[in-house]
Amino acid sequence: MTLETASLPKQPQNMPVIGAALALFALVIAAANLAGQKQALAVLIGGLAGFALYHASFGFTAAWRRIFAEGRGVGLRYQFLLIVITCAVSFPLIAYTDARGFILPVSMGMLFGSFIFGFGMQFGGGCGSGTLFVVGGGSTRMCITLLFFVIGSVLGTMHLNWWNSIAFPQAVQETLGVGDKFSYGMINNLGPIGAFVVLISLLGAIALWSVWYEKRKHGDLEPPRKTESFIKGPWSPLAGAIALAIVGILTLIVAGRPWGVTWAFALWGAKGANLIGIDVLSWPFWTGWKANAVQNTVFKDTTSVMNFGIIAGAVAAAGLASKWRPIFSLSKVEISTAIFGGLLMGYGARLAYGCNIGAYLGGLVSGSLHGWAWALMAFIGSSLAVMVKRKMNI
Which pLDDT score, from 0 to 100, does residue 7 have? Predict the structure, then answer.
């Protein structure tokens, strides 16, 4: 290869791009026929999410690892920008329309679940959305993570009632003036404007601290990556934050609730278990509408069709970037950490109402206290995992 040909831009890979386009088309048609036009729109919203996640490399795992291990906070600050943009629209929508937020209680099980999710994602190599878009990008290792994410999720549903029965210690209840679990919705209590002011004040304070900390550690701020091409990528984190905010807002409008990812993993696991003769419908978790979800076509589940769209969108983005190259030679360490991380993330996500998207982002854009509690415990778990991996030299 000559120097001239080496400097030429890589051409898109036709097969992944065409395959992703056909898959998206088939998903849209199937969703429309089996569940209606809104479900077809959900597929397309998922496709946009996968395309944006891949091109912007917009994950939560690396950003949390870098602020803890390296003192670099650019990824964290753009996560906050994503949250602020989404909340500027989601708070009024939840306050004045039929859209509903995720206002869920903080409990012992929820806190433990978010902790082990944060720990697991540093071993698995991605959060819920990160797992999907990296699978779409052609990662065979992340396919293992996803498989065990699904297994861990359905195992979490087996034990969820027991975890929910654990109360806070009496001393904690008396000190905080709460019961065995408690919830708080900022939009209901402060109104959408008051809730937004509180949100941007808290996120702004953390962002300013991250700027101070990064400058103190490195002397300057790391410049964010620039967008090279909106079609072939890569994208800047600003473009990624804006695109994913649009995804979150469209999901709230179309689905009537915030964006989520990991509920579908539990559903897929339950369907698989039911198929091989495991009576999951006898478990307390799988009753009512959840039992119907197990028995109905997966295309009637909005989270599932959005996840299918994410994978297809990421395949298209990887093909356009000429980076869709699955690697089938994996080391024992790669396989074992994928299994371990996937199981912890799946199990933790069921206890804690979801992952970085459904629990953290979904909680904050709903104005729910549990989103903040999730973020704190997951960050602690994530940071501990970084230290453990460093000790183990993996």
Answer: 46
